[in-house]
Write a structure and sequence with these properties.
Layout lengths: L1 H22 L2 H7 L7 E6 L3 E3 L4 E9 L5 E9 H6 E7 L4 E5 L2 E10 L4 E10 L3 E11 L5 E11 L1
Helix pairs in contact: 1-2
Amino acid sequence: MKRRTLWILIGILVVISACCTCGGLGALGLVFTSRPPEDVDLEVQVPETVTVGDPFLIRVTARNTGDQNHTLHSVIFPETLLQKMAVLEITPAPVESDEFADITTYLLQAPIAPHEEAQLSITLVPKEPGLHISTLDVCIDSSTRCVTFRFTITVRE
């Protein structure tokens, strides 16, 4: 029995090693991620044009269309976005935040009751002008059940 457990652990290490070697740490996400629940609809509103130094909002709405409780678990920003924009406020306030590799995760744990919705507001301030193409991951129930939203913002001087 101990020998079998050892081989299973070696197999897991080989998979992790191959993912990290071929695609970096992000490749691990391809192995272990799943889609959010089908009974939660997500909508993200991002302005098309903003001005350097002026705060703006990204709004996320998570609608629970089912009969089970869900949680607006977290929101994940890539480092490339946070280098160009400062986060002023997140509502509801995150329970904690974590920086790892090239992402920052804000843990929210906001409940979404059946047939209700949860709102998330993110206030950002652009630091430099230009065309900014980025992503925002919104996770439901766990950090692996996420939807990636791609967006483009034109930042004027």
